[in-house]
Structure formats: structure tokens, C-alpha cells
Amino acid sequence: MASDLNDGGVLNLASRDEEEFRYQLELVKAMYQDKFNKLKELKDAIERTHAIMERGKRKLKKDFDQWYHLSCEGSKYSVRQSIATKKEGNEVSTTSDDLKRIKKQPNDLDAFREAQKALLKMRTENN
Predict the structure, then answer these.
(1) Any long-range contacts for 108-112 (C-beta under 8 Å, 24+ apart)?
(2) How confident is the model over 42-54, as pLDDT tens digits?
(3) Which of 29-33, 84-88, 101-105, 106-110 has the lowest mean pLDDT?
(4) DSSP letters along the chain, please?
(5) Is residue 104 very low, low, confident or very high in pLDDT (cuts 50, 70, 90)?
(6) Pick from 116, 118, 97: nearest CA to 108
(7) How far apart are CA 16 and CA 9, in angstroms?
(8) CB 95 within 8 Å of CB 117
(9) How much is the pTM?
């Protein structure tokens, strides 16, 4: 108890409270630093995931554009484009052969629906 007395012989309670507050402050600072580091790691992980998603998005768009370009070659779209570019004077000329080719081309939406039906049928058969 001799160490708790100041020069006047009065208990030094302020130093005890001060030490307790310092200890609690150090605990809170350590907890804060731990949480901060965890958030920093999460931020890095989120940024990496975002970058991966952006690369995937660009690749998907590129792949789709390539597929679409290839699927349009020789399809009704390219035939329609060729009809629109055949001009005699100010009028667009269409031949009956061009119209027959357009009608014979399968509709992409119909082809998609048929493929979707086939996949659903396969899934129901497998279950």
C-alpha cells in the first residue's frame, strides 16, 4: 500500500483508474486493428473477385459477338442485308430467289425454343 500513497500520504486512485483505462484502451485498439485487417483482406478478396467477374464478362461478350457473327453468316440476316444493298436507282430490288432463301432460313428464336424443349425433355427423362 505504500506505493499507492502520494507525497501527502493520500491514496493515488487516479493512477489506478488511469492504468485501467489505458489497459482497456489497448484492448480496444487491438480489437480495432484486428477488425481493420480482416476488412482489408475482405476488400482485397472482393476486388479480386470483381476483376475476375469483369474479365469473364468481357470474354463472354467477345465469345457471344464471335458466335453471333458466325451464326449470321449465310443466315437470313446476311440475306436481308444483301437484299438491302442491292439497289437499282433509288429502289431496292428483291428477287424471288432471295425471298425463298429468307423463308427457308430457320428462325433463331424457334431454334432456341426447340433446343430448350429438347433439354427439358432430357432432364425430365433423367429424373
Answers:
(1) 108/71, 108/75
(2) 999 999 999 999 9
(3) 84-88
(4) -GGGB-TTS-B-HHHHHHHHHHHHHHHHHHHHHHHHHHHHHHHHHHHHHHHHHHHHHHHHHHHHHHHHHHHHTTSHHHHHHHHHH-EETTEE---HHHHHHHHHSPPHHHHHHHHHHHHHHHHHHH-
(5) low
(6) 116
(7) 16
(8) no
(9) 0.41
